[in-house]
Amino acid sequence: MADLTPKQREVWDCFIKEQPKILLASGAKRAGKTFVFILLFLMHIAKYEKQGLSFIIGGSTQASIRRNILNDMEEILGKELKLDKTNAINVFGNKVYCFDGTNADAWKKARGFTAAGALLNEGTALHDMFVKEVISRCSYPGARVLIDTNPENPAHFVKTDYIDKDGQRLANGKLNIKAFHFTLFDNIYLDEEYVESIIASTPTGMFTDRDIYGLLWVAAEGVVYKDFNKDKHYISAKDLESVKMVRYFAGVDWGYEHHGSIVVLGEDDQGGFFVVEEHAAQHEEIDYWVEVAKDIKRRYGNINFYCDTARPEHVIRFRRERIRALNADKKVLAGIEEVARLFKSSKLKVVSDNVDRFKKEIYQYVWNEKTGEPVKQWDDVLDSIRYAIYTHTKPQRRKTR
After folding, report:
1. What are the structural domains, with CATH classification, of the chain?
2. pTM value > 0.70
């Protein structure tokens, strides 16, 4: 208890004294939400020591469950936790099943048994049917459900079905739902320089609201890349000549009625990125894009082309033509955040002489206020850049974590 932050102690006290059936923690990253929930979940399981009961851990993937939950559990318990053939671990003489819950039919994994409790990590990444089924499975007397999440758009079911019902009580007066909100500043044990660095590097607008203040259960609005500044981020082709590039790579967004796009990027020896050239066109067949890619390969070498996976036949054609075509990681918000972070830190520059459509898109790529995602217009070149940067930098992000 001595090492808990004041916010974590508040959550801890609520769990013990008020005993809500469903307890939620939403807000900023690195605020301490998941850790206190792991402690509470273990304490809850320990109440039923050696009773052979079933419990549930839910996450977006098995990898995220391992990274976000099981690794910390191992440190707390001082022992290795190995999944058996049923994707379960043994904790305090009980069985804890680990389910990935992002797909529409993921809830079926939770059918057929009674659980005494559940810990659901990254709640907004889970399918609503999965969450509802897990809650319904927790019907053992005294069962508790813990859900931690980062904020999402205001229409997300985690907000409308649970957080908005904070304080809901059952007919007998017992607390049914309790929700807590975390900001980055609630984690008083974070290094001050780290916090300052995070604030300085977090993109303006939606990502600051979410990652620092944990506020964004409200709609995003306005231009997506708010930190882009033509005076800071455009450089000339002549300026590029003095940059020491260590590698090149490309992003590909297939299109026909809307613009198709191939963008070439360079990475310098300081970890900076440059949009070196853009190719964007409407109503062109795959033969055209093969020739564009071959010309890029001739000038820059056998570089990686991170491709939109929406047209697998085009990716296959590129590979047949000996173009190194790789499937891009197309995560929208995470990819946008990575690009926006580079603009914020001035580590992404654009060669103004060699782009045309980018200059139009960068100011017209806006948030859809209802969905919390970008409007699918003026995004073709920007999608190519996102595919390339987010996929290319993935190994480094894993190493950093």
Report:
1. 6-186 (3.40.50.300), 230-400 (3.30.420.280)
2. no
